Amino acid sequence: MVSALTRYFGVQNLELVEDIVQEALMKALQQWPYRGVPENPGGWLWQTAKNHALDVLRREARFQKKLQGEIRLNEMDQTHSEQRRGTMGREADAYPFEDDQLSMMFIGCHPALTREMQVAFVLNAVSGFSAAEIAGAFLVPEATMAQRLTRAKSKLRTLGARFELPDGGSLAERLDAALDVLYLLFNEGYDAHTGESLARQDVCREAIYLCRLAATHPLTGVPRTRALLALMLLQASRLNARTDADGDLVLLRDQDRSLWDREMIREGLYYLGLSAQGDALNRYHLEAAIAAKHAAAESYERTDWLGILSDYEALLESAPSPVARLNHAVAVALAHGTEAGLNELIKLKDDASLMKYHLLHAAFGELYERSEKFEQAAQSYRAALALTGNEAERRFLQKKLSTVEDRGRVDNNTG
Amino acid sequence: MSQFMLFIRAGEESSEHLSPEQIQQAIQRYSAWAKKLREQGKLIAAEKLKDNEGWLLSARNGQIAVDGPFAETKETIGGYFIIEAATLDEALEITKESPALSNGGIVELREIEG
Question: Does this model's pTM top 0.80?
Answer without folding.
Answer: no
